[in-house]
Amino acid sequence: MKQDYYEILGVSKGASAAEIKKAYRKKAIEYHPDKNPGDKEAEEKFKKAAEAYEVLSDPDKKARYDQFGHAAFEGAGGFGGGGMNMEDIFSQFGDIFGSAFGGGFSGFGGFGGGGRARVKGSNLRIRVKLTLEEVANGVEKKVKVRRKVQAPGVTYKTCPTCHGTGQVTRITNTILGRMQTSTTCNACGGSGQIMDKRPSDADAHGLKVKEETVSIKIPAGVSDGMQLKVSGKGNEAPGDGIPGDLLVAIEEQEHQTLKREGDNLHYDLYISISEAVLGTSKEIDTVTGKVRIKLEEGIQSGKILRLRGKGIPSINGYGAGDLLVHVNVWTPKTLNREQKDFFEKMMYDDNFSPKPEKSDKSFFEKVKDMFS
């Protein structure tokens, strides 16, 4: 079971954004790889702290986490739906603790003290339509994505202006003496590399569009409008940059007979007066197939039958909702002479007079129970 994000950072659930940032900086400095060279345990704690901060520093992700827990981001390729690696961490949060280590991190992928930048490719966004059955059971979707990738044959060389450091240092004479300033290299944009060879089918950044099939694991219990993230499946970046992400928006399709309300489902069951009087059994739809239910003699219109656990699984893993079957007794609009004679005879029959019991709740009581 994954550790609670608030527990990782050592803050309470009601902590402010400033308190969360301060707590993360403290953890990041404590477990920074430069401070703990070769210590795998410290490296894991460093990654966990970044994972927690990536979610809790984002108001939308924090709200989803507070509501659904870790399950809000499952099936999307990693934490926060993102699966960040060390490069992701330093590219996104380096400003929080970079100054504590001389402006960089020397242990992974070019985040050295020289200030060389890692460009990240742009994100792609798609919508995925899901049936109610797919929402309830979880599904793996394969989608075709047109993304920019590095064209074969593209080569890069060290930037001659900054000599691969990504920064240009200038020394100027002032009234106070000689002053040294460092700025991002304009020639390479801070990457330390410039394009050497570019094939004819590549754009100015050495990229070309390629169609690729991406597999997306969607957990059970997602809802319409929820967004998942598949790390590294957006557009690639020039040189040794970091690929962008594929953002997947969930679109839930309307079911023909079932209506969703949170984790619960509603089903309108219509029966005849004869069926209501004599009792019957009916086959109804659920998200796992059809089931047969029994209706007792004398069942009343408006009766709600609760089929426990037949709703949508909770995305946080805490069981499933219920299926609420709303019984509606259908009154015929036209009758033949024989049928009219029968009901006219029964109109004043004592057995046909309404005699509601205390257990027969009113419409408003049923609505109150449904939302409580």
What's the helix-strand series?
A: HHHHHEHEEEEEEEEEEHEEEEHH
Taking the alpha carbons of the first and last residues, their distance comes to 31 Å
Strand content: 25-35%
The computed structural class is alpha+beta
Radius of gyration: 31 Å
Strands in their spatial order, largest beta sheet: 10-11-15-14
Helical region count?
A: 9
Organism: Abyssalbus ytuae
GO cellular component, one term: cytoplasm
Subunit structure: Homodimer.
GO molecular function: ATP binding; heat shock protein binding; unfolded protein binding; zinc ion binding
Descriptive keywords:
alpha+beta, elongated, 372 residues, single chain, 9 helices
Short description:
By secondary structure, the chain is an alpha+beta fold.
Written description of the protein model:
The protein has helices at residues 5-9, 17-31, 40-56, 59-68, 86-97, 132-137, 273-278, 337-346, 363-371, and strands at 124-130, 139-150, 155-158, 167-174, 177-184, 193-197, 207-218, 227-230, 246-252, 258-261, 264-272, 280-286, 289-295, 304-307, 323-330. The protein is built from nine helices and 15 strands. The two termini are 31 Å apart. Mean pLDDT is 83; it is low at 76-83 and 98-114. Helix 2 runs antiparallel to helix 3 (40-56). A hairpin with a 2-residue loop joins strand 12 (280-286) and strand 13. The chain has 372 residues and is an alpha+beta fold. Homodimer. InterPro entries: DnaJ, DnaJ_C, DnaJ_domain, DnaJ_domain_CS, HSP40/DnaJ_pept-bd, HSP_DnaJ_Cys-rich_dom, HSP_DnaJ_Cys-rich_dom_sf, J_dom_sf.
